Amino acid sequence: MVLLVSMLFGIQALCSWAASPPAREALTALLSPTCNDTAVEEAADLALRLINTDRKEGYILSLYRIFSVREHPQEITGSVFYLILDVVDTECHVLSKKLWKNCKARLAQGTVYGQCKAIIYINQPRNIAHLNSYECILQPVPPRYIHKGCPDCPVDDCPTEPRYLEAAVQSLAKFNEESQQTHYFSVLNVTRASMQWVVGPAYFVEFLIQETSCSKNDTIADISKCKPLSSELAQIGFCKGSVVNSHLEHTRFVTISCEIYSLQDSATEEGKQQANQAPGKASQNQQQAFPSEINPFSPHLEKTVGWVKILPPSTEDISSPNLSKENQNANKDGKPLPPEAVGSTPSLDGEKTQADKADLTKPVTGPVILSFPEELSLSDSCPGEAKEKNSILQPLLPKKPTKA
């Protein structure tokens, strides 16, 4: 009798093991390619392009280095890459739709830095690069690190202060007077601001502008009274301006430079960066998009979900900001998160697979998306080399835990 019971338990265990080889294989088949591998570099490049394309606020993020990568080869061909990227922001606004490699990095003292986790599926034979999800946490370089290397450099300030809005309005007035646009533009919001004492207070601002219904053929005393054009018609712009008040000459020096983005141009640029492109085949500035009708995997690729949080400047001696969703003081792309939103944003930690949507009539052929792996890359080449050395940023970057 005891022998019979033992045999039954043995058969059940064997059947259980044999019935779930895909799940068992999926959990153990994570590879640790080198951080300088060509396929990994390409995956990081594509992931960052698609993160920047997905965002509607903030600045384009640039790759500083690849911190960690895990690869999960798929039975349907292709691989899912689980990337941790050290990133810095650039001088390009996301509305410009520029590629991150074409954007100028900020000076060390003005850097906003952090990490992004990204899950991207790449299938070269079928010309697919699909960003499943991402989450980024950024923060400005702590002021004491800036003052140590550049005591007189301006430090980023709160852009919502009235003095910076006033500086934006004053510099925009110069643009409205000199530009060839047919309508006046008004300030939408100030995105970045700093102040420095030169020959008097000098204000430096970056801000978005919107086209108004007021024609430049008319004399307008107060442009703030002009109504914005509808979102379908209005052009949006991004400006950098400065207002320097000279106490010596009792005068004011104003500078302004703006880029104007029409909806048509923006859509065209975004079309060049579609996910269903041919990895490794498209040029940096011109990428071919493949519509879903000719891509058999598109019905099984979920919509990209992700977020970018910006933490306030830290006064502590810290390393790179922690990718934690519990930080109550975080901002999402520069805007404060409401209490109910914190902790409820999409997470990479919950297991998601395309097989969850399977039915009897439509077999699933999409990639298997696992929980973001807790274990970092096992490769000694990770973290990879920095794309550009930054003496202020270098000591703040996270370090890979040493092996016991």
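(the above was protein one; protein two follows)
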Amino acid sequence: MLTLNLNSPSITVTFAKSTHHYPINASPSSLPNTRFPTSSVLLHTPTKPFTRIYAHPFGFSSKPTSQIHGLNPKFPSLFSSKPRSQTPKASSASEANPNGEIEPTVPKPKVTTAQLSLIFGLWYFQNIVFNIYNKKALNVFPFPWLLASFQLFAGSVWMLILWSLKLQPCPKISKPFIVALLGPALFHTIGHISACVSFSKVAVSFTHVIKSAEPVFSVVFSSFLGETYPIQVWLSILPIVMGCSLAAVTEVTFNLQGLWGALISNVGFVLRNIYSKRSLQSFKEVDGLNLYGCISIISLFYLFPVAVLVEGSQWVQGYHRAIASVGEPSTFYFWVLLSGVFYHLYNQSSYQALDEISPLTFSVGNTMKRVVVIVSTVLVFRNPVRPLNALGSAVAIFGTFLYSQATAKKKKEAEKKN
């Protein structure tokens, strides 16, 4: 087999070995009695794959997504702020295929301002809708265990529909894969139910301020496991700690259960990140949306039996009180349904956002998302906000922004070394 690279870098011509002996520069005109078999010349031209539908709420994606957000989208590896494709990324301008031929990589098109606005707009909108209707439902039906279970159930049904209609490729399920998911699903369950408990006890804005302290737990736990961070990262978590502390002591709706719920949620999601990085390295071929769907299904099996034990005996009476408070049963059903559907959608949207934009842009957008959600919920529910409380919230969120910048710089330096 002989490979000839022509002047065009995008075309490779491969000649099959022949028993005829002709000069390599011979042309068909000089060989009138010779016919080249069609199978002897193989033209390899890079083609852009057709865009596939991945059932994203705001359109199409040209490649599978890679991340899971609870979710808060900051997972390393599986849930990291850096997307992971189903195909390995090229380490240089081109890489060899199995036949030893060089195939150039197709550069990713740059996202326009209009596309970026649409991505962030829909992501923020879905997150705001979830937080508003989740809180509305919890105000009249204060049973977070059941509501959290329903949100996982809604996401599970959504994914089953996508798989059955072939709008999303169904993952290959194996026993090792299920075993590897058990740990991340457990910590995801802990993070999700703890956040819902916090939402039921305090204002949504306060929960989000405390949840902005997740980087603090991430740095501390990862450091215990041997990972090192530059001084800029450690300095960036100081304003997060100070801002959250100031917001907590000045919060009008302060409740100890609400505070602990938000803190435990941070711990759960951080441990999920770390555990996922260790246990799911052998399943990189499964894209992030499928991983999130599988984790939602397993988390539902974790959570619902415990929910029945914790508050199941109060659901019937609570349901009647909720209907009496709202007036129309359909209104209550509508709130619960929106909280479940948009919980899944805003996580799904975060995956596509990661697929379309850089990790640094995503981290900045995620920080601004908290600001938008906090402001929106304060306006909708008319929560009283003291000046010091607003200052503490702003300092904490600014610290989160500094952390995202510092960690992004750390990743760039690590990539340059590699």
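Reviewer note on protein two: The mean pLDDT is 77.
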